[in-house]
Amino acid sequence: MSAQFGPAGNADSFPYKSSVDAPRWLGALGLDCYEYQCGKGVNVGEATARSVGAAAREAGISLSLHAPYFINLANPDPDSLQKATGYILAACRAADWMGAARVVIHSGALMKRTRREALDTALPALRQVLSACDEEGFGHIALCPETMGKINQLGDLDEVLELCTLDERLVPAIDFGHLYARSLGALEGEEACERMLDRVEEVLGAHRAACFHSHFSKIAFTPNGGEKMHLTFDQTDFGPDPAPLMAAVARRGWSPTFICESAGTQAEDALTMKRMYQSCLT
Ligand SMILES: [Zn+2]
Known about the structure:
Elements: E1 4-7, H1 22-29, E2 33-37, H2 46-59, E3 62-66, H3 78-98, E4 102-106, H4 115-135, E5 142-146, H5 157-164, E6 173-175, H6 176-182, H7 190-209, E7 213-216, E8 219-222, E9 226-230, H8 242-252, E10 257-260, H9 266-281
Parallel strand pairs: 1-10, 2-3, 3-4, 4-5, 6-7, 7-10
Antiparallel strand pairs: 8-9
Helix pairs in contact: 1-2, 2-3, 3-4, 5-7, 7-8, 8-9
């Protein structure tokens, strides 16, 4: 197994209107995977979802799905948890229609509490979400809590890893651009990459660490808040540089899934990452 590379949603250069055409286009470019975007809500119908899934299987593209952005597992209000559970189940249903094995979910917001208090709300909430997934027959879908880019969001690396200790089916969605932005640029470069990957292995074990899910893009940040906006690889004012991460993953022989979230050039930049990674394999 080697690492997989693909875009989040459709790049500006995508020449078709329908995502059903995306897997064939990505396969022809030399990419491996595709993250279907439901960030603004799960609005995809069953017929479309099944067509995307069939096209992906035909093109040899593996699929994941991004659940709605507004999910907040750290909200202590029970109504909020019920709604979040509903959104996650809807995302799992669409993923199931597509044959997508992974659903990415945002961890939540601090809402003026300490990080520990927010995490202590999110942990039992996620446990409840998992049992709801089991009841609905979605136990085979891996939920992927994501590291978040704003400082007042729950989801630094340790918080996401702690969430993932709840259940074997949880896969960390490590957004390296987000970690770079929330650390105001500290988490980049060879040493930081090695430290982050070591940490994943320390908490989740070698087997689970090797197949983590990932988002990657360069991200501009502000000193107070963290993440400001996603950039393209051509923009050089901000990082992180993908090269040290590609080298570290190749050296370890790991096979994570890298979803590129560059602003408009996500397919091209995913291919750049794949070439960097491949050049480190030899
Ligand atoms: Zn996300």
